[in-house]
UniProtKB/TrEMBL annotation:
Its EC number is 3.6.1.25. This is Inorganic triphosphatase. Residues 2-228 form the CYTH domain. It comes from Pandoraea anhela. GO terms for molecular function: inorganic triphosphate phosphatase activity; metal ion binding. Keywords: Hydrolase. The gene is ygiF. It comes from the Bacteria.
Amino acid sequence: MAIERELKLALPGDLPASRADALISHLDHLPGAQARGERHLINRYFDTPDLALARAKAALRLRYVAREGHPGQWLQTLKSVGEARNGLHVRHEWEQAVQGEALELAPLITACEIPATAALLRDEGAKVVAQFETNFLRRLWRYVAGDGTAVEIAFDRGDVAVQADGVRHTEPLIEVELELLDAPDDDLGAQAERILNALAQDLRAVLPELHSDDVSKAQRGYRLRQKVLGG
């Protein structure tokens, strides 16, 4: 089981391209940061018709990752109960490669170490259907601080989408995610907040529009779904 620790920073949907380019340029020249290229991510979120996973604060995702010069890959991810405070998200996460464009729930249930979440997926898994998508281009950097703490910096630009009656309803999605990859074992939680918040402060100096956001991409999708479909 992995514990995901990331700081999420949101940007206005109408952010001018020149402002986004200024942030990218800053990250390209940030000491300690190494550019890792761009990915195209297609993300489908699944739930039961009565949204049993959402009520349990769990998220089930099928993701396709494509990058230039490499074959695409399908991944399934289960995220369980966590917390978000001042943009810092801490939650359980299980991610596995799958053969194709379909969930493979049995190995995900086996991997899940939270009994209530595993039982929910076992009992309700046959009922899950795609509810919404988040699709975006992700530009990546790996940042290593002086003490060896490693952070993945992701700049995402795309949209959240819900399909209803043959119409695709969308809202813009522009975010920066700062995810802790590695830190001294004796102080992991404190390192996360110190390093991630220092990075966020540095980025806000370049782009003051950045603001801490406790809303996950999955929550954005559920909100758009409710707006489009009701209930």
